[in-house]
Write a structure and sequence with these properties.
It is a single chain. This protein is α+β, with helices and mostly antiparallel strands and 355 residues long. It has three domains: 78 residues, Uridine Diphospho-n-acetylenolpyruvylglucosamine Reductase, domain 2 (2-Layer Sandwich); 117 residues, Uridine Diphospho-n-acetylenolpyruvylglucosamine Reductase, domain 3, CATH 3.30.465.10; 104 residues, UDP-N-acetylenolpyruvoylglucosamine reductase, C-terminal domain (Uridine Diphospho-n-acetylenolpyruvylglucosamine Reductase, domain 1). The protein is 24% helix and 29% strand. It contains nine helices and 21 strands. It has a five-stranded mixed β-sheet, covered by helices on one side. It is globular, with a radius of gyration of 21 Å. The two termini are 23 Å apart. The structure holds flavin-adenine dinucleotide (FAD). The site of flavin-adenine dinucleotide (FAD) has 33 residues, from strand 4, strand 9, strand 13 and strand 14. The site of flavin-adenine dinucleotide has 33 residues, from strand 4, strand 9, strand 13 and strand 14.
Length: 355
Amino acid sequence: MNDSRASAAANFGYTVHENASLLDRTTFRVPARAATLIDVHEFDAVPRLLEQAGAQNREVLVLGGGSNVLFTRDWPGIVLALRTRGLDIVEQHVPGAPGDAAIVRAAAGETWDDFVHWTLAHGLRGLENLALIPGSVGAAPIQNIGAYGVEVGEFVHAVQAFDRTTNSIVRLDRAACAFAYRDSLFKREAGRYLIAAVDFLLPRERALRLDYDGVREELAAMGATDPDARAVAHAISRVRTRKLPDPVTTGNAGSFFKNPIVAAGVADALRHENAKMPVWPVNDGHAKLSAAWLIEACGLKGFRDGNAGVSSQHALVLINHGNASGAQIWALARHVMDAVQARFGVRLEAEPLIV
Ligand SMILES: Cc1cc2nc3c(=O)[nH]c(=O)nc-3n(C[C@H](O)[C@H](O)[C@H](O)COP(=O)(O)OP(=O)(O)OC[C@H]3O[C@@H](n4cnc5c(N)ncnc54)[C@H](O)[C@@H]3O)c2cc1C
Protein backbone atom coordinates (compact mmCIF):
# COMPACT_ATOMS: atom_id res chain seq x y z
CA MET A 1 0.00 0.00 0.00
CA ASN A 2 1.33 3.46 -0.89
CA ASP A 3 -0.67 5.23 1.77
CA SER A 4 1.43 7.07 4.26
CA ARG A 5 -0.50 5.79 7.26
CA ALA A 6 -3.14 3.16 7.62
CA SER A 7 -4.93 2.06 10.71
CA ALA A 8 -7.26 -0.86 11.00
CA ALA A 9 -10.46 -0.56 12.93
CA ALA A 10 -11.68 -3.91 11.70
CA ASN A 11 -13.56 -4.52 14.93
CA PHE A 12 -15.62 -1.43 14.19
CA GLY A 13 -16.33 -2.48 10.60
CA TYR A 14 -13.99 -0.10 8.78
CA THR A 15 -10.36 0.60 7.92
CA VAL A 16 -8.83 4.09 7.83
CA HIS A 17 -6.06 5.24 5.48
CA GLU A 18 -4.65 8.74 5.92
CA ASN A 19 -3.33 10.71 2.91
CA ALA A 20 -4.34 7.86 0.62
CA SER A 21 -3.81 7.50 -3.10
CA LEU A 22 -7.01 7.17 -5.14
CA LEU A 23 -5.17 6.16 -8.33
CA ASP A 24 -6.34 2.54 -8.13
CA ARG A 25 -9.75 3.48 -6.77
CA THR A 26 -11.21 4.84 -10.01
CA THR A 27 -11.33 3.30 -13.48
CA PHE A 28 -9.93 6.53 -15.02
CA ARG A 29 -6.79 5.82 -12.98
CA VAL A 30 -5.87 9.48 -12.57
CA PRO A 31 -3.64 10.63 -9.71
CA ALA A 32 -5.51 12.11 -6.73
CA ARG A 33 -5.30 11.75 -2.97
CA ALA A 34 -7.85 11.70 -0.19
CA ALA A 35 -6.93 13.31 3.11
CA THR A 36 -8.72 10.33 4.67
CA LEU A 37 -9.98 7.20 2.94
CA ILE A 38 -12.16 4.82 4.92
CA ASP A 39 -13.02 1.35 3.63
CA VAL A 40 -16.35 0.47 5.19
CA HIS A 41 -17.03 -3.25 5.62
CA GLU A 42 -20.10 -2.98 7.83
CA PHE A 43 -22.77 -0.41 7.04
CA ASP A 44 -23.62 -0.06 10.76
CA ALA A 45 -20.40 1.96 11.08
CA VAL A 46 -21.67 4.64 8.68
CA PRO A 47 -23.84 6.78 11.02
CA ARG A 48 -21.01 7.10 13.54
CA LEU A 49 -18.43 7.91 10.85
CA LEU A 50 -20.71 10.62 9.44
CA GLU A 51 -21.33 12.03 12.89
CA GLN A 52 -17.58 12.26 13.50
CA ALA A 53 -17.05 13.85 10.08
CA GLY A 54 -19.76 16.40 10.86
CA ALA A 55 -18.22 17.21 14.23
CA GLN A 56 -14.87 17.80 12.50
CA ASN A 57 -16.52 19.84 9.73
CA ARG A 58 -15.14 17.54 7.06
CA GLU A 59 -16.79 16.86 3.70
CA VAL A 60 -17.64 13.26 2.84
CA LEU A 61 -17.64 11.66 -0.61
CA VAL A 62 -19.00 8.15 -1.16
CA LEU A 63 -17.15 5.86 -3.52
CA GLY A 64 -18.17 2.47 -4.90
CA GLY A 65 -16.09 0.93 -7.68
CA GLY A 66 -15.00 4.36 -8.94
CA SER A 67 -16.21 3.65 -12.49
CA ASN A 68 -18.25 6.83 -12.78
CA VAL A 69 -16.09 9.41 -11.01
CA LEU A 70 -13.37 11.74 -12.30
CA PHE A 71 -11.10 13.35 -9.71
CA THR A 72 -9.68 16.60 -11.08
CA ARG A 73 -8.06 17.42 -7.73
CA ASP A 74 -7.29 15.94 -4.33
CA TRP A 75 -10.14 15.42 -1.88
CA PRO A 76 -9.47 17.36 1.34
CA GLY A 77 -12.16 15.54 3.33
CA ILE A 78 -13.14 11.92 3.83
CA VAL A 79 -13.78 9.36 1.11
CA LEU A 80 -16.05 6.55 2.33
CA ALA A 81 -15.53 3.48 0.15
CA LEU A 82 -18.46 1.11 0.65
CA ARG A 83 -17.24 -2.48 0.55
CA THR A 84 -20.12 -4.15 2.38
CA ARG A 85 -21.11 -7.61 1.19
CA GLY A 86 -24.25 -9.74 1.28
CA LEU A 87 -26.69 -11.35 -1.16
CA ASP A 88 -29.97 -12.84 -0.08
CA ILE A 89 -33.32 -13.96 -1.48
CA VAL A 90 -35.63 -12.29 1.03
CA GLU A 91 -38.89 -13.45 -0.57
CA GLN A 92 -39.03 -16.52 -2.82
CA HIS A 93 -42.53 -16.00 -4.23
CA VAL A 94 -44.01 -12.54 -4.17
CA PRO A 95 -47.80 -12.55 -3.97
CA GLY A 96 -49.42 -10.26 -6.51
CA ALA A 97 -46.33 -9.92 -8.71
CA PRO A 98 -47.00 -10.77 -12.36
CA GLY A 99 -45.90 -14.40 -12.89
CA ASP A 100 -43.54 -15.95 -10.35
CA ALA A 101 -41.08 -13.45 -8.93
CA ALA A 102 -38.63 -13.17 -6.03
CA ILE A 103 -37.21 -10.29 -4.03
CA VAL A 104 -33.44 -10.28 -3.76
CA ARG A 105 -31.45 -8.01 -1.45
CA ALA A 106 -27.87 -7.03 -2.33
CA ALA A 107 -25.50 -5.02 -0.17
CA ALA A 108 -24.11 -1.81 -1.69
CA GLY A 109 -20.53 -3.07 -1.91
CA GLU A 110 -21.32 -6.14 -4.01
CA THR A 111 -19.84 -6.06 -7.51
CA TRP A 112 -22.64 -5.39 -9.99
CA ASP A 113 -21.63 -7.93 -12.64
CA ASP A 114 -21.12 -10.71 -10.06
CA PHE A 115 -24.57 -9.93 -8.69
CA VAL A 116 -26.13 -10.14 -12.17
CA HIS A 117 -24.63 -13.61 -12.65
CA TRP A 118 -25.73 -14.67 -9.16
CA THR A 119 -29.36 -13.78 -9.97
CA LEU A 120 -29.19 -15.68 -13.27
CA ALA A 121 -27.70 -18.72 -11.53
CA HIS A 122 -30.72 -18.61 -9.18
CA GLY A 123 -33.13 -18.76 -12.15
CA LEU A 124 -34.10 -15.10 -11.94
CA ARG A 125 -34.41 -12.89 -15.00
CA GLY A 126 -34.35 -9.25 -15.84
CA LEU A 127 -30.79 -8.08 -15.27
CA GLU A 128 -29.18 -10.04 -18.13
CA ASN A 129 -28.97 -7.00 -20.45
CA LEU A 130 -27.04 -5.14 -17.74
CA ALA A 131 -24.21 -7.69 -17.56
CA LEU A 132 -20.60 -6.46 -17.42
CA ILE A 133 -21.43 -2.90 -16.36
CA PRO A 134 -18.56 -2.06 -13.98
CA GLY A 135 -19.11 -0.86 -10.44
CA SER A 136 -21.09 -1.73 -7.35
CA VAL A 137 -24.72 -2.56 -6.58
CA GLY A 138 -25.04 0.54 -4.39
CA ALA A 139 -24.21 2.88 -7.26
CA ALA A 140 -26.58 1.22 -9.76
CA PRO A 141 -29.67 3.24 -8.70
CA ILE A 142 -27.73 6.53 -8.56
CA GLN A 143 -27.74 7.12 -12.31
CA ASN A 144 -30.28 4.35 -13.04
CA ILE A 145 -27.71 2.35 -15.00
CA GLY A 146 -28.88 1.24 -18.39
CA ALA A 147 -27.69 -0.75 -21.37
CA TYR A 148 -29.06 -2.75 -24.28
CA GLY A 149 -32.60 -1.46 -23.89
CA VAL A 150 -32.96 -2.02 -20.13
CA GLU A 151 -32.65 0.30 -17.13
CA VAL A 152 -32.09 -0.99 -13.62
CA GLY A 153 -34.96 1.12 -12.23
CA GLU A 154 -37.44 -1.31 -13.82
CA PHE A 155 -36.31 -3.97 -11.36
CA VAL A 156 -35.58 -1.98 -8.22
CA HIS A 157 -38.19 -2.83 -5.59
CA ALA A 158 -36.80 -0.61 -2.83
CA VAL A 159 -33.59 1.05 -1.67
CA GLN A 160 -32.36 1.07 1.94
CA ALA A 161 -30.32 4.17 2.61
CA PHE A 162 -28.97 6.39 5.35
CA ASP A 163 -30.58 9.81 4.99
CA ARG A 164 -28.12 12.51 6.07
CA THR A 165 -30.85 15.12 6.54
CA THR A 166 -32.79 13.06 9.10
CA ASN A 167 -29.87 10.91 10.33
CA SER A 168 -31.94 7.77 9.93
CA ILE A 169 -32.17 4.67 7.79
CA VAL A 170 -34.98 5.01 5.27
CA ARG A 171 -36.64 2.65 2.81
CA LEU A 172 -37.51 4.20 -0.54
CA ASP A 173 -39.76 2.26 -2.90
CA ARG A 174 -39.32 2.41 -6.65
CA ALA A 175 -41.70 5.34 -7.12
CA ALA A 176 -39.84 7.36 -4.46
CA CYS A 177 -36.54 6.74 -6.27
CA ALA A 178 -37.96 8.74 -9.23
CA PHE A 179 -35.89 6.99 -11.86
CA ALA A 180 -35.38 8.66 -15.23
CA TYR A 181 -32.80 8.43 -18.01
CA ARG A 182 -29.41 8.29 -16.22
CA ASP A 183 -31.07 10.03 -13.31
CA SER A 184 -32.80 9.42 -9.98
CA LEU A 185 -33.68 11.05 -6.69
CA PHE A 186 -30.17 10.10 -5.49
CA LYS A 187 -28.50 12.04 -8.27
CA ARG A 188 -30.81 15.04 -7.93
CA GLU A 189 -30.25 15.19 -4.15
CA ALA A 190 -26.56 14.34 -4.41
CA GLY A 191 -24.88 13.60 -1.08
CA ARG A 192 -28.13 13.19 0.87
CA TYR A 193 -28.48 9.39 0.74
CA LEU A 194 -25.89 6.68 1.35
CA ILE A 195 -27.29 3.52 -0.16
CA ALA A 196 -26.86 0.50 2.12
CA ALA A 197 -28.65 -2.16 0.09
CA VAL A 198 -30.97 -2.55 -2.86
CA ASP A 199 -34.00 -4.88 -3.14
CA PHE A 200 -34.78 -6.14 -6.64
CA LEU A 201 -38.06 -7.70 -7.78
CA LEU A 202 -37.01 -10.29 -10.34
CA PRO A 203 -39.31 -12.54 -12.37
CA ARG A 204 -38.59 -16.21 -13.08
CA GLU A 205 -40.26 -15.96 -16.47
CA ARG A 206 -39.93 -12.99 -18.75
CA ALA A 207 -39.58 -12.40 -22.47
CA LEU A 208 -35.96 -11.75 -23.40
CA ARG A 209 -35.14 -8.34 -24.87
CA LEU A 210 -33.04 -8.99 -27.92
CA ASP A 211 -33.89 -6.02 -30.12
CA TYR A 212 -30.89 -3.87 -29.31
CA ASP A 213 -28.24 -3.60 -32.03
CA GLY A 214 -25.99 -6.63 -32.31
CA VAL A 215 -27.55 -8.89 -29.65
CA ARG A 216 -29.31 -11.36 -31.98
CA GLU A 217 -26.24 -11.41 -34.25
CA GLU A 218 -23.97 -12.23 -31.32
CA LEU A 219 -26.29 -15.01 -30.13
CA ALA A 220 -26.29 -16.42 -33.66
CA ALA A 221 -22.47 -16.27 -33.75
CA MET A 222 -22.45 -18.19 -30.46
CA GLY A 223 -24.74 -20.84 -31.99
CA ALA A 224 -27.43 -20.06 -29.39
CA THR A 225 -30.58 -20.86 -31.37
CA ASP A 226 -32.88 -21.00 -28.32
CA PRO A 227 -31.13 -18.60 -25.91
CA ASP A 228 -31.93 -18.28 -22.21
CA ALA A 229 -31.17 -15.26 -20.02
CA ARG A 230 -27.65 -16.52 -19.26
CA ALA A 231 -26.85 -16.79 -22.97
CA VAL A 232 -28.07 -13.19 -23.43
CA ALA A 233 -25.80 -11.99 -20.59
CA HIS A 234 -22.92 -13.86 -22.19
CA ALA A 235 -23.64 -12.42 -25.67
CA ILE A 236 -23.89 -8.86 -24.32
CA SER A 237 -20.66 -9.31 -22.35
CA ARG A 238 -18.92 -10.40 -25.56
CA VAL A 239 -20.21 -7.39 -27.51
CA ARG A 240 -19.27 -4.99 -24.70
CA THR A 241 -15.77 -6.46 -24.45
CA ARG A 242 -15.23 -5.84 -28.16
CA LYS A 243 -16.79 -2.38 -28.29
CA LEU A 244 -15.58 -0.68 -25.12
CA PRO A 245 -12.01 -0.05 -23.99
CA ASP A 246 -11.14 -2.20 -20.96
CA PRO A 247 -10.51 0.04 -17.93
CA VAL A 248 -7.90 -2.46 -16.69
CA THR A 249 -5.61 -1.47 -19.56
CA THR A 250 -7.01 1.93 -20.62
CA GLY A 251 -8.43 4.27 -18.00
CA ASN A 252 -12.00 5.35 -18.78
CA ALA A 253 -15.46 5.68 -17.25
CA GLY A 254 -17.56 4.25 -20.07
CA SER A 255 -19.82 6.81 -21.74
CA PHE A 256 -18.63 10.22 -20.62
CA PHE A 257 -21.63 12.14 -22.01
CA LYS A 258 -25.35 11.60 -21.70
CA ASN A 259 -27.44 11.51 -24.85
CA PRO A 260 -28.97 15.01 -24.89
CA ILE A 261 -32.74 15.35 -24.63
CA VAL A 262 -34.04 18.37 -26.56
CA ALA A 263 -37.46 19.78 -27.54
CA ALA A 264 -38.94 17.90 -30.51
CA GLY A 265 -38.85 21.12 -32.58
CA VAL A 266 -35.09 21.49 -32.00
CA ALA A 267 -34.56 17.86 -33.01
CA ASP A 268 -36.66 18.35 -36.17
CA ALA A 269 -34.63 21.43 -37.17
CA LEU A 270 -31.34 19.58 -36.61
CA ARG A 271 -32.62 16.59 -38.56
CA HIS A 272 -33.58 18.90 -41.42
CA GLU A 273 -29.96 20.09 -41.65
CA ASN A 274 -28.41 16.68 -40.95
CA ALA A 275 -30.41 13.94 -42.62
CA LYS A 276 -28.37 11.12 -41.07
CA MET A 277 -28.60 12.32 -37.47
CA PRO A 278 -30.24 9.66 -35.23
CA VAL A 279 -33.22 11.02 -33.30
CA TRP A 280 -35.27 8.95 -30.85
CA PRO A 281 -38.62 10.36 -29.78
CA VAL A 282 -39.21 10.37 -26.01
CA ASN A 283 -42.33 11.42 -24.11
CA ASP A 284 -44.02 14.84 -23.97
CA GLY A 285 -42.67 16.55 -27.06
CA HIS A 286 -38.99 15.78 -26.51
CA ALA A 287 -36.44 13.78 -28.44
CA LYS A 288 -33.13 12.15 -27.58
CA LEU A 289 -30.07 12.75 -29.77
CA SER A 290 -27.01 10.54 -30.05
CA ALA A 291 -24.10 12.21 -28.27
CA ALA A 292 -21.71 9.80 -30.03
CA TRP A 293 -23.03 10.91 -33.45
CA LEU A 294 -22.68 14.60 -32.56
CA ILE A 295 -19.08 14.11 -31.39
CA GLU A 296 -18.15 12.07 -34.44
CA ALA A 297 -19.74 14.68 -36.73
CA CYS A 298 -17.39 17.25 -35.15
CA GLY A 299 -14.46 15.06 -36.24
CA LEU A 300 -13.46 14.32 -32.66
CA LYS A 301 -13.62 10.51 -32.58
CA GLY A 302 -10.06 9.40 -31.88
CA PHE A 303 -8.98 13.01 -31.09
CA ARG A 304 -6.10 13.22 -28.63
CA ASP A 305 -4.68 16.01 -26.53
CA GLY A 306 -1.56 14.70 -24.82
CA ASN A 307 -2.54 11.68 -22.77
CA ALA A 308 -6.26 12.52 -22.73
CA GLY A 309 -8.26 11.33 -25.71
CA VAL A 310 -11.59 10.49 -27.26
CA SER A 311 -11.67 6.74 -27.90
CA SER A 312 -11.29 5.72 -31.53
CA GLN A 313 -13.52 2.72 -30.73
CA HIS A 314 -16.42 4.73 -29.30
CA ALA A 315 -16.81 8.53 -29.51
CA LEU A 316 -18.66 8.71 -26.18
CA VAL A 317 -15.74 7.31 -24.22
CA LEU A 318 -12.92 9.56 -23.02
CA ILE A 319 -9.73 7.73 -22.22
CA ASN A 320 -6.56 8.12 -20.25
CA HIS A 321 -3.79 7.09 -22.67
CA GLY A 322 -1.21 7.01 -19.92
CA ASN A 323 -0.52 9.56 -17.27
CA ALA A 324 -3.26 12.08 -17.93
CA SER A 325 -4.46 14.01 -14.92
CA GLY A 326 -8.14 14.33 -14.14
CA ALA A 327 -7.89 18.05 -14.94
CA GLN A 328 -6.54 17.21 -18.43
CA ILE A 329 -9.40 14.79 -19.07
CA TRP A 330 -11.92 17.35 -17.88
CA ALA A 331 -10.32 20.00 -20.17
CA LEU A 332 -10.72 17.59 -23.09
CA ALA A 333 -14.35 16.96 -22.09
CA ARG A 334 -15.05 20.69 -22.16
CA HIS A 335 -13.36 20.97 -25.55
CA VAL A 336 -15.75 18.29 -26.88
CA MET A 337 -18.75 20.01 -25.27
CA ASP A 338 -17.76 23.39 -26.77
CA ALA A 339 -17.24 21.90 -30.24
CA VAL A 340 -20.66 20.19 -30.22
CA GLN A 341 -22.33 23.34 -28.93
CA ALA A 342 -20.66 25.52 -31.58
CA ARG A 343 -21.71 23.22 -34.40
CA PHE A 344 -25.17 22.03 -33.28
CA GLY A 345 -26.24 24.44 -30.52
CA VAL A 346 -26.65 21.53 -28.10
CA ARG A 347 -24.75 21.40 -24.80
CA LEU A 348 -23.60 17.91 -23.82
CA GLU A 349 -23.74 16.96 -20.16
CA ALA A 350 -21.12 14.83 -18.40
CA GLU A 351 -22.37 11.51 -17.02
CA PRO A 352 -19.72 10.82 -14.33
CA LEU A 353 -19.38 12.74 -11.08
CA ILE A 354 -16.69 15.38 -11.64
CA VAL A 355 -14.84 16.15 -8.41
C1 LIG B 1 -16.07 0.49 -19.27
C2 LIG B 1 -17.29 1.10 -18.62
C3 LIG B 1 -18.55 0.85 -19.13
C4 LIG B 1 -19.70 1.40 -18.54
N1 LIG B 1 -20.92 1.11 -19.08
C5 LIG B 1 -22.05 1.62 -18.53
C6 LIG B 1 -23.33 1.30 -19.08
O1 LIG B 1 -23.46 0.54 -20.04
N2 LIG B 1 -24.42 1.86 -18.50
C7 LIG B 1 -24.33 2.69 -17.42
O2 LIG B 1 -25.37 3.15 -16.94
N3 LIG B 1 -23.13 2.99 -16.87
C8 LIG B 1 -21.99 2.48 -17.40
N4 LIG B 1 -20.76 2.79 -16.86
C9 LIG B 1 -20.68 3.69 -15.69
C10 LIG B 1 -20.59 2.94 -14.33
O3 LIG B 1 -20.23 1.61 -14.52
C11 LIG B 1 -21.91 3.00 -13.56
O4 LIG B 1 -22.32 4.33 -13.38
C12 LIG B 1 -21.79 2.32 -12.19
O5 LIG B 1 -23.07 2.22 -11.60
C13 LIG B 1 -20.87 3.05 -11.24
O6 LIG B 1 -20.67 2.23 -10.11
P1 LIG B 1 -19.47 2.48 -9.10
O7 LIG B 1 -19.67 1.58 -7.94
O8 LIG B 1 -18.18 2.38 -9.81
O9 LIG B 1 -19.78 3.97 -8.65
P2 LIG B 1 -18.74 5.14 -8.36
O10 LIG B 1 -18.09 5.54 -9.63
O11 LIG B 1 -17.87 4.79 -7.22
O12 LIG B 1 -19.74 6.29 -7.91
C14 LIG B 1 -20.64 6.86 -8.85
C15 LIG B 1 -21.57 7.82 -8.11
O13 LIG B 1 -22.38 7.12 -7.19
C16 LIG B 1 -22.16 7.55 -5.85
N5 LIG B 1 -22.23 6.33 -5.03
C17 LIG B 1 -21.57 5.17 -5.21
N6 LIG B 1 -21.98 4.25 -4.31
C18 LIG B 1 -22.91 4.84 -3.54
C19 LIG B 1 -23.71 4.43 -2.42
N7 LIG B 1 -23.66 3.19 -1.93
N8 LIG B 1 -24.56 5.33 -1.86
C20 LIG B 1 -24.65 6.59 -2.34
N9 LIG B 1 -23.92 7.04 -3.38
C21 LIG B 1 -23.07 6.17 -3.98
C22 LIG B 1 -20.79 8.22 -5.86
O14 LIG B 1 -20.71 9.19 -4.84
C23 LIG B 1 -20.81 8.83 -7.26
O15 LIG B 1 -21.58 10.03 -7.25
C24 LIG B 1 -19.59 2.24 -17.41
C25 LIG B 1 -18.31 2.48 -16.86
C26 LIG B 1 -17.17 1.92 -17.46
C27 LIG B 1 -15.82 2.17 -16.86
